[in-house]
Amino acid sequence: DLGMVIVDEQHRFGVEQRDALRAKAKSGTSPHLLVMTATPIPRTIAMTTLGDLETSTLTQLPRGRSPITSKVVPRKQHPNWVDRAWERILEEVGAGRQAYVVCSRIGEDEEDGGAGTGKGGTGKGGAKGKAKAAQEKEPPTTQAAVEVFDMLRAGPLADVRVGLLHGRLHSDEKDQAMRAFNDGDIDVLVCTTVVEVGVDVPNATVMVILDADRFGVSQLHQLRGRIGRGAHPGLCLLITDAAPGGSAMARLTAVAGTTDGFELSVLDLRQRREGDVLGSAQSGTARSLRLLSLLDDLETITAAQDFAREVVREDPGLDKHPGLASMMRAAVDAERLEYLAKS
Fold first, then answer.
1. What SS3 class is residue 317?
2. Mean pLDDT lowest for which of 58-62, 102-106, 239-243?
3. pTM reported for the whole predicted model
4. What are the phi and psi torsion angles at 247 (to 5°)?
5. Where does 108-189 have alpha helices with state H?
6. pLDDT, tens digit, for every residue of 189-214?
7. Would you give the distance in Å from CA 153 to the centre of its chain?
8. Nearest residue to 116 (alpha-carbon basis) of 176, 168, 179
C-alpha cells in the first residue's frame, strides 16, 4: 500500500531507477513523490519547468554549518600554489582540525581488478605481463589515491597522520578508516568519491580536490559539502591542469564562485543540456522538443504551463478544446506521455 516515495540525493539515480520505486505501488495508485538534492541535474530542472514537478527551495544553511570558501588552483601555471595547499592543510591540522584530499581514481591497477594497493597480482602472466601492458598504455594524466597517499606520507604531510579510503578496500577496512578519521585518529584522509555523501565529520575544515576538472558540477558541490559542517569555516581547493580560458576552467571557476546549488544546476544545464524529457536521456543535446530552450524561453514556457493548468482544471478531458486535444495527441504518444510522469 505504497503512498509516498522519498528519494534523497536524487542526482545519483537514473530516470528508470526512480520510476521503479513508484512502480512498487498497487496498480491504479500513484504515490506522492518527494525528491531531494543539493544540486538538481538538468533533467530535474527540465521537469520542474515542463512537467508537473513543484519545487521547494531551502536556502539557509543547516544549523551548525559554517561558510565555505572555494579557490581554483591552476597547477601548471602556479605549481607553487599546490605547495601552499599542503601548507594550508598543515596549518589546519596544527590548529586541531582535519582535512580531505580527494582523487578521481584509485590506482594504476584499477582496470585489471586490483585492490589499488600497489601490490602485484596473481593472475596469469604475472608482473612481466603487467609491466608490458603498462608500457603499451598511455600514462595516466590524473593522480591516483594510492599514489597520492604514498607521496603525501613521504613528503609534504610526513609529520601528520594520513589515512586512505577508497571503494576497493574491504568493507571492514573502509569502516576502520572512516571511524579513525571520525574519532580524530587520522588528520588527513586521502580518498575517492566514496565520501561524496553521508559523511559527517564536523572537525574537517579543508578539502583539496585533485584533478578537479574530472568531476561534474554536482559531484564537486556534494564533495565540498563534507567540510564546513562544524563551528569553523571550510576551505575547498580545486587543483586542476585545465587550460585557462577553456570550458573546464570556466566550470571550476563558476563552482568556486557560489555555493548555491540551484545556481550551479543552471550552469550544469547550460553545459550538459536537459536531454530528452520525453525519453530516458537525462542530459545531452538529443531531445524531442525542437523549438524550446529552457534557458532562453523560460517566460514563454511558464506562461504556457499556467494556461494549460487553467484549461485542464476547467476541462479535464479537453472536450471543449478539440483543437488542443488534437495537437496534444499529435505531439505526445503514449510512450512519451509515460516519460513526462517520470522524475
1. coil
2. 58-62
3. 0.75
4. -65, -35
5. 126-136, 145-154, 171-182
6. 999 999 988 899 999 999 999 999 99
7. 28
8. 168
